[in-house]
Structure formats: structure tokens, C-alpha cells
């Protein structure tokens, strides 16, 4: 049978590959083929590890839901090493899967390569810094393996910084650009993928290509939000702006979702030239005691918490909403920031008296989740399963979603974790990129992130059932929601996810990864290996 023959061929191919690696020398394949690019394979042999220590580390991710071991892990020293590995697989008779792994902070096994080779991207930056700032031209060239926190530190040395951020900075450049990279600056600057000028990509055929909006633009647009399907990002040129020094960081409490979203939408409609916030997000707290969440510790005093508890009990549903926002400033604007903040707050309708303000450095603000990470680690609830669900919801359906999901399916629960809810402007997303937004004509959509942790026996199953119910609700109510950090188990699911983009994406896949070896953990394209 064809499938069986393919499997056997694959296993022989893999075994021969590994024996070559182990022996550190080049031999003809037992299947009769000559080793393509044998010299390169020889050069990367010493960078491949097949021991359990190495493969176990690459067998799971932050989600701790999916587990699958690779046959080997490549620790590349240069992008050319990655190209050599991919060329070897792509041109062999029995190609094997290859998955770049950044921090492995995916939730559902997206960076795994069962039966294949995981590329430990972080090895690229080891020993030398792959971050080059071009201050005059206003950009930074960062290796795909670099952490955003390190990009921040390097650019700050020049008084500059990227404009668009994720909430958490211990993620790699290549990892977030393969999704979109969203956060509270996206309403103004778009997601991180909208702030990239140029990329170096090792494609699924092992070619090293420099691409941009002008040059090899089909690859450029494919890779941004491309879920690792078309190649490996080894360098990204990211736009910079003058870095502010400090941030006024505020939380505003609401009991009414309509008032909450109304204020959020007012804030994201403001131009950079108007008085407004530079960062706008939001959170929902469903029936919380407000003492149990570590994320509350840095913001609220004991007295605040008592007042908030009173607010919760007055809110009929038990749910309260917070706008989280920040206004940046520096020495030159320090004297006017209070006035500017006051002017914005006057336009908003949060519950009177429920404004909480902190004043922090820009880095403290951007790196704020680090503090939460430390708290969670210290009480042992960081390395637990994370059955996260992230959705983009069209603006017109967000109140219905709130009623049916937050006050319905999840109503009255006390989840461990956070629920984020904030709007973004559709026109800041470039639809030529692979990243997907709700396919409607609406100019605003919401990100709703159910970032919940499983801390007790049975939590994973319960939270997954709730996730299923949430997705079923959207389908039943015909809410055109899209998953962010998407996960589907069938091709049909992916077709619906990509919608009108599907045909194009399939074409680009055939062009840049014809053997379907790249990032199999996304489970989008069935490779001949997987179907065997
Ligand atoms: C605590 C926490 C907070 C988060 N906050 C946010 C947030 O605010 N906003 C947001 O947008 N996301 C957020 N995320 C999600 C995060 O952006 C994604 O999970 C991202 O994929 C993680 O990056 P990583 O470097 O760990 O990638 P990995 O998990 O290692 O990889 C993700 C996918 O990209 C592929 N990949 C990795 N590197 C490359 C590369 N160089 N080139 C091509 N493909 C590559 C992998 O094969 C895999 O398919 C958060 C995640 C965590 C754990
Ligand atoms: C694997 O890890 C163990 C424990 O940390 C260590 O003793 C051992 O030498 C490691 N093996 C390899 C091959 O690195
Ligand atoms: C940074 O510059 C050095 C020296 O020009 C170059 O070798 C390196 O590839 C650059 N790194 C990145 C990520 O652009
Ligand atoms: C909130 O939680 C408490 C205890 O966890 C429960 O008794 C109460 O009914 C919940 N409230 C709502 C509105 O579901």
C-alpha cells in the first residue's frame, strides 16, 4: 500500500539521516538516492542532538496539552544551518517535518515536530547579539530568535523602541510575527506584523530569501501571520519610534458592558495627534473576590479591593470590566501629562471614583507581565496546562457575545487566569498578510482572550468543554468570529478559518513548501508523512 511504503521510506530516510549525523560523515542513502547538499549536512551534524534531554524539551509547550517528541533537535549557529537542514529534508526521497521553535509559548503544540526535527531557534543568538539598530533610518534588524525584551533593551540604547507590543515580552520575534502580535498599541499602529519592513526567510525548499513589500512580496505577506507554514523567519526589520520615558498607567472600572465598550471604542478612535491614550486594552472579571488574582496585587490597595468588592456585589451579573490604558510621556511632556489625562478621563463614563493610577517607567509598563509571571511561578501555577482560547469578534456582535458567553456559558465562574477584551481598528491590518481578522465590513473588532489555567484535577476537561461551548455558541449565533492563535483539527476547519484567503494560502504553500514539511504542529496541511 502506498501509504505504508511512504512510511517505511520515511523511517529509512530518517534513520539514515540520523546515522549520518551520528557518524558525522556523508554516505549515500540506502534508498539509492545521493545526499543532496551533503556538505551542508556534514556541517550541521554536530549541531543535531537526538538524546532524550534535547528531544524532551522540544516535546511540549506552554499549553501543556499536546505532547509529541521529535526525532532530533537542531541547534543552528547561522541561518545557513537551518537552510541546510530544510534542503536536506525537502530534496530527499522521504522528507521529514521541520518545526522552528521560539520560546515554545504556543498553547496547542504548534512548535512540535512529531517524528521530525525541531529547530531550536534560540541557539542562533547564543554567544553573540543578533540585534542591529539603524537609528537614523528608524528601524532595527532583529534575529527571528530574539526575545522582544532584548529588542527593547537594544533599541532603548538609541532612545528608540518598536511601536507595537504583545503583553508579554519573553516571546520571540519569529514566533509572534508568525501569528500577528497583538496588544494595546494595535489600535493605533496595527499588530506587530504591520510594523515590519523586511524579512529574511529560509523557505520550505531551503532557500534564503530577503523579502519586503517590494521584493518577493508574496513571500513577505505569506509569512506574516503565516503560522510557520512557508519558512523560517531568521531576521525581521522592525520600525522604531522615539521611546517615551514613562507611562501613566490607569485602570477604570465599569459594571455595564455597553458603557465599557462605548468608552473603549471612543478611545481607539482617537488619532495620535489628539489627546488620548497610547495603549488601550480591557479585562473582564467574572464574579471574583478580587483578592485571589495575582494580577491585582500590583494595582490595587486593600482599600481599593474593598471598594471593588462592593462594586461587584452591586453589579447584577457579578461581572465587572476594567479599561486598562496608558499614556506615555517624557521630560518634555511631564508637566502636561496630568492635564492631558484629566482631559481624556472627563470624556469617559466609568463608575465615578473608580479610577486607579500608577506612574511607572516605560520598561516597567511594557514588561509588566514579567511581574505576574514571577508571582505565578512562586506559587507553582505557571507551569500548568493552559487551554487558552483567543477570539476576534466583530464589533456588532460583542454585546451578544458578552451576554451569551461571559454572562452565560462562563457566568459566575471564578477562573484562574485573566479574560481580556479590547477593540482594534480593522484598517490597521493589511489583508494581504496571512493573518486573519473577522471577514466583515466592520471597521472595529474585539479581541477576547480566555487565558485560563488548569490548576486542579479535571480543570483541563472542564475548560475545554467550556471552550467548545463558546465556539458552538458563535457558530449557532452566526457570529463571524475568528480564532487568534488558531487551532483546528480538520482541513475543513482551516478552510473556514481562512475563508476567502484559503485558495491563495494553499497556492503559496505549494510554492514555498511543496513537500509540506514546515511547522506540522499547526495541523493545517496534511503532509504525505502525516497521512501515512
Ligand atoms: C504568557 C503569554 C502571553 C502572551 N501574550 C500575547 C499577546 O499579548 N499578544 C499576542 O499576540 N500573543 C501573545 N501570546 C501568544 C504568543 O504570541 C504566541 O504563542 C507565540 O507563538 C509565542 O512565541 P514563541 O516564540 O514562543 O513561538 P513558538 O510557540 O515557539 O512558535 C509558534 C509557531 O511559530 C513557529 N515559529 C517559531 N519561530 C518561528 C520563526 N522564526 N519563523 C517562522 N515560524 C516560527 C513555530 O513553528 C510555531 O508554529 C502570549 C503567550 C504567552 C505564553
Ligand atoms: C541529560 O540530563 C541529565 C540530568 O540533567 C545529565 O546528567 C545528562 O548528562 C544529560 N545527558 C546529555 C546527553 O546531555
Ligand atoms: C548585524 O550586523 C552584523 C555585522 O554587519 C551582521 O553580520 C549580522 O548578520 C547582523 N544581524 C542581523 C540580525 O541583522
Ligand atoms: C459567585 O461565586 C460565589 C462563590 O464562588 C457563588 O456563591 C455566587 O453564586 C456566584 N455569583 C454568581 C452571580 O454566579
UniProtKB/TrEMBL annotation:
One of its GO terms (molecular function) is oxidoreductase activity. Its EC number is 1.5.99.12. Residues 1-23 form the signal peptide. Pfam families: Cytokin-bind, FAD_binding_4. This is cytokinin dehydrogenase. The keyword Nucleotide-binding does not apply. It comes from Brachypodium distachyon (Purple false brome). Keywords: FAD, Flavoprotein, Oxidoreductase, Signal. It is an enzyme of class 1 (oxidoreductase). The gene is LOC100839711.
Amino acid at each position: 500500500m502506498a501509504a505504508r511504503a511512504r512510511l517505511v521510506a520515511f523511517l529509512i530516510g530518517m534513520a539514515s539521516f540520523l546515522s549520518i549525523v551520528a557518524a558525522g560523515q556523508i554516505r549515500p542513502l540506502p534508498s539509492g538516492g545521493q545526499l543532496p547538499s551533503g556538505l551542508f549536512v556534514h556541517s550541521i551534524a554536530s549541531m543535531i542532538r537526538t538524546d532524550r534531554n534535547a528531544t524532551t524539551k522540544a516535546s511540549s509547550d506552554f499549553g501543556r496539552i499536546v505532547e509529541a517528541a521529535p526525532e532530533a533537535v537542531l541547534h543552528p549557529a547561522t541561518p545557513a544551518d537551518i537552510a541546510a537542514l530544510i534542503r536536506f529534508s525537502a530534496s530527499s526521497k522521504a522528507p521529514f517535518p521541520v518545526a522552528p521553535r521560539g520560546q515554545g509559548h504556543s498553547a496547542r503544540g504548534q512548535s512540535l515536530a512529531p517524528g521530525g526535527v525541531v529547530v531550536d531557534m534560540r541557539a542562533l543568538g547564543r554567544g553573540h547579539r543578533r540585534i542591529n539598530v539603524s537609528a537614523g533610518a528608524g528601524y532595527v534588524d532583529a534575529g527571528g530568535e530574539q526575545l522582544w525584551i532584548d529588542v527593547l533593551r537594544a533599541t532603548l540604547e538609541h532612545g528608540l523602541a518598536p511601536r507595537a507590543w504583545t503583553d508579554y515580552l519573553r516571546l520571540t520575534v519569529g514566533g509572534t510575527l508568525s501569528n500577528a502580535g497583538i496588544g494595546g498599541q494595535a489600535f493605533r499602529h496595527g499588530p506587530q506584523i504591520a510594523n515590519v519592513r523586511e524579512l529574511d526567510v529560509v523557505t520550505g525548499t531551503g532557500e534564503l530569501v530577503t523579502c519586503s513589500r517590494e521584493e518577493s512580496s508574496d513571500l513577505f505577506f505569506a509569512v506574516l501571520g503565516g503560522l510557520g507554514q512557508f519558512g523560517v523567519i531568521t531576521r525581521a526589520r522592525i520600525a522604531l519610534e522615539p521611546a517615551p520615558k514613562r507611562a501613566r498607567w490607569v485602570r477604570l472600572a465599569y459594571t455595564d458592558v455597553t458603557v465599557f465598550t462605548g468608552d473603549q471604542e471612543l478611545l481607539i478612535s482617537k488619532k495620535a495627534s489628539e489627546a488620548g491614550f497610547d495603549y488601550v486594552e480591557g479585562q473582564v472579571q467574572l464574579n471574583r473576590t478580587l483578592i485571589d488574582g495575582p494580577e491585582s496585587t500590583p494595582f490595587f490597595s486593600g482599600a481599593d479591593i474593598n471598594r471593588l468588592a462592593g462594586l461587584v456585589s452591586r453589579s447584577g451579573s457579578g461581572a465587572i470590566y476594567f479599561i486598562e490604558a496608558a499614556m506615555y510621556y517624557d521630560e518634555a511632556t511631564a508637566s502636561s501629562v496630568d492635564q492631558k489625562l484629566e482631559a481624556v478621563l472627563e470624556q469617559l463614563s466609568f463608575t465615578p471614583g473608580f479610577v486607579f493610577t500608577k506612574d511607572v517607567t516605560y520598561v516597567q509598563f511594557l514588561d509588566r507581565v514579567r511581574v505576574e509571571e514571577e508571582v505565578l511561578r512562586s506559587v507553582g501555577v505557571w507551569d500548568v496546562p493552559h487551554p487558552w482560547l483567543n477570539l476576534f469578534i466583530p464589533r456588532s456582535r460583542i454585546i451578544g457575545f458578552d451576554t451569551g458567553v461571559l454572562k452565560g456559558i462562563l457566568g459566575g465562574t471564578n477562573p484562574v487566569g485573566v479574560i481580556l477584551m479590547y477593540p482594534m481598528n480593522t484598517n490597521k491590518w493589511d489583508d494581504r498578510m496571512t493573518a486573519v481578522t473577522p471577514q466583515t465590513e466592520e471597521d472595529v473588532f474585539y479581541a477576547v482572550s480566555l487565558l485560563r489555567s488548569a490548576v486542579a484535577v479535571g480543570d483541563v476537561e472542564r475548560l475545554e468543554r467550556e471552550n467548545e461551548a463558546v465556539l458552538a455558541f458563535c457558530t449557532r449565533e452566526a457570529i463571524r468570529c475568528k480564532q487568534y492563535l488558531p487551532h483546528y483539527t480538520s482541513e475543513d476547519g482551516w478552510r473556514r478559518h481562512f475563508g476567502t484567503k484559503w485558495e491563495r494560502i494553499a497556492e503559496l504553500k505549494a510554492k514555498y513548501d511543496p513537500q509540506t514539511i514546515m511547522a506540522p504542529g499547526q495541523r493545517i496541511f496534511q503532509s504525505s508523512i502525516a497521512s501515512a
